[in-house]
Amino acid sequence: MAEVAKTVARQLPGFKLGQKQVFLPNHVITFLRKEHLPPNEATFQVPLRFTKFDLRDYLWNLYDVEVTKVRSYVKQQPLTQRNSHSRSWYRPKPLKVMTVELARPFQWPELPEDLTPWSNQLWKMREDLMEKRNDEHLQQQRFKIPLKSKQPMSKERQELADLAKKLMSGEEKWSNDVVLDPKWEKILNNEQKAVQPAKEA
Question: Which GO terms describe its cellular component (predicted)?
Fold first, then answer.
C-alpha cells in the first residue's frame, strides 16, 4: 500500500491542483521564444483573464509540465492609428505575459535552414508586395505620384515590347492561329494585290 501511495505521489505535481472545470475553451496561449532566458524558464503570452494558477494547471494537465514559480506582468500597447484615412488614435488591449520556472529544463530546437515546406518564398513575396503597396500609398498621401513611364516595366510588358519590336522589324509575322472564313481570305488577297501596285509605283 505504501508503494502505491509513493507511485501516486510521484505522478502528482508538487503543488495543489485547482478544481476549475473548463469546457470548450477558446483561449489562445502562445509560447514565446526568448533567447536570453535560461533553460529552466519559459515565457507565455496568455489572455488577460488568465491567472498564475490557470497557467500552472494548464501546463500540467495538458503537457505534463511541472511549474515551480510563475511571474506575470501586463504590457501596454503603443497608440495606434485606426486607419490611414483617419485622425483617430486608440490604444489596443494590453498583453499579459507570464514567465514560469520549470522543474525540468527545456531547450529550444535549432531553427530549420530549409524553409521550403512552410512556403517561405510565398510569404516573402507577400511581404514584399505589402511593403510596396504601403510605400505607394505613402507617396500618394505626399502627392508624389511617380509617372508610369518612369516605373520599371513588369515581365509581361517587357515581353510585349520585345514582341512588338520583332513585328515592326519583320523578324516575326503576326498570327493568332485562327482559321478565317474563306470569304475573308478572298478580301485579304484582294487587299494585298491592291497594295503591291502601290508599292511598285
Answer: mitochondrial large ribosomal subunit
